[in-house]
Amino acid sequence: MRLTNLDMDALRSFVAGIEAGSFAQAADRLGRSTSAVSAQLKKLEDQTGAKLVQRSGRGLVLTEGGEVFLSYARRLLNLNDEAVSAIREPELEGWVRLGIQEDFGESVLPQVLGRFARAHPKVRIEGRIGRNVELREKIALGHLDLALAWDDGTATDAERIAALPLCWLGSTEEPLSWQVHAGEPLPLAALEAPCLLRTLACNQLDRAGIAWRIAFVSPSLAGLWAATAAGLGIALRTPFGAPASVGVLDAAEHHLPHLPSLGLTLLGADKPQTPISAHLATIIRQALQDRLPEAWVPGA
Questions:
Q1: Cβ distance 263 to 162 under 8 Å?
Q2: Which CATH number, 3.40.190.10, 3.40.50.300, 3.30.300.30, 3.40.50.2300, labels domain 167-259?
Q3: Which of 70, 107, 135, 213 would give a disulfide with 185, using CB separation of 3.0 to 4.6 Å?
Q4: Residue 142 CB-density burial (10 A; 0-12 exposed, 13-18 middle, 19+ buried)
């Protein structure tokens, strides 16, 4: 079978058109005519053999195939731009210190480290997986250059790069037997204090008038998942990174409070950003766009 080489300019126009809301606005942004951008879209549809967009009123919306293709298009463009940047930019040397919330340690960190190491093999990375309080303290003390942490509302200059839904999580093997009207307090599995999500869970239950007790405390996320999977208590967390043995509970079914979303921020040290930390920040944003649902990443 003959392989098809997708046109990078056409991919860029396609992504720009979807992000701008119309290909006329994308044409202005790219400095091209609307007809030229439309021609590139037609070229992509010919190359893929699929209809990517369809008209809806005065605008365009993605088809089912277009939704799938958009994710690949963004990843192709990110990899293209990363490759060009690695070749064109001066070879960087030095070191950078990165902290990352432990929810993202196994899923996002390997991708970030791999991309950065390939682009800048002479840069040494010092990484730390930690809890929110620890990461913020180390940023404040200048012990980290970048940190990916939950938004606790204390950092006014933090860059909010995603918003993840909070949910109640329980064991998939041991159904929750607690009943709101049975008189027993709700058992919670939580991380050691201070913990932002532990505090949120307690506050939400207090507002709803639901009695609770801390049934299991862990210093690490692995311990929290183990206790939740064993049915010792339920946890408040985002669904990202949860093991298969833990599932999202239906809040309405169990008479639990509905929960808001939680912001994810990229924190920088209180000093001018270096080319090394700037490129690492770009790779972190790209990795999150690859791994998180589009609805969770503003502007994705």
A1: yes
A2: 3.40.190.10
A3: 213
A4: exposed
Calculate the dihedral angle through the C-alpha atoms of 151, 226, 182, 166, rounding to the nearest 10 degrees.
20
Asked if residue 264 has pLDDT above 70, the reply is yes
Asked if the domains 94-163+262-296 and 167-259 are classified in one and the same CATH topology, the answer is: yes
Q: Nearest-CA neighbor of 96 among 83, 111, 113?
A: 113
CB of 131 closer than 8 Å to CB of 191: yes
Q: Which fold has domain 8-88?
A: Arc Repressor Mutant, subunit A (1.10.10)
**Which amino acid is located at 180 in the chain?**
V
Fold for the domain defined by 94-163+262-296: D-Maltodextrin-Binding Protein; domain 2 (3.40.190)
pLDDT digits (tens, 9 = 90+) for 169-200: 999 988 887 776 667 899 999 999 889 999 99
pLDDT tens digit sequence for 94-143 = 889 999 998 888 888 888 888 888 888 888 888 889 888 899 999 988 89
> Residue 166: pLDDT above 60?
yes
> What's this model's pTM, rounded to 2 decimal places?
0.68
Q: Which two tokens stand for residue 57?
A: 């009123």
End-to-end Cα distance, the chain: 33
- Residue 217 pLDDT exceeds 90: yes
Q: Which of 112, 111, 153 is nearest to 136 (CA)?
A: 153
